[in-house]
Amino acid sequence: MQLEIVRIYHLSDRWLAEELLRLARRCREEYPRRLKEVDRNASYESSLVWDVVPEVAKRLGSRSLMMVEASDPKIVACDTAILREYAGICIKFSNLKSWIATADRTSAASLLVRDVCNGNPIAIALDRLHPANEEDQAQDIIARELREWSRKNCVEEVCSWRPSLMSKIG
Prior knowledge:
0% strand
């Protein structure tokens, strides 16, 4: 999976957008009973694969969204700092991790909710759209987790992931 994350990291914005859409759609296929339809009562899982990831992809330049993707007015209208905050919440608190079979670590779901310190495709995309900054860090789960992890494991403190951090992962 580490090679897959490095590959995703090096994609151009447009191809990263398409990869994110592919992962969200594949995740919905992996869990058809739970994620078949958009749930506007917004479980974190549904919101992540129907609205958050497609909205991130759209902002990176994708033009291949389906009508029902990225259609939650609150998410569409929010600025990138708020989108980053909400995506971090969805990644952290989603039950997708508990749905993933132990043997299925290469599933789309496992990539979408991968810990940000190990490289998460959504966090990688958000670092391009809205890099972590001092003002946002109180609410920015993604930056906070990376900062706390890097304090313990790296020489320097970081708030965005990059492949060179993989050598620090134990």
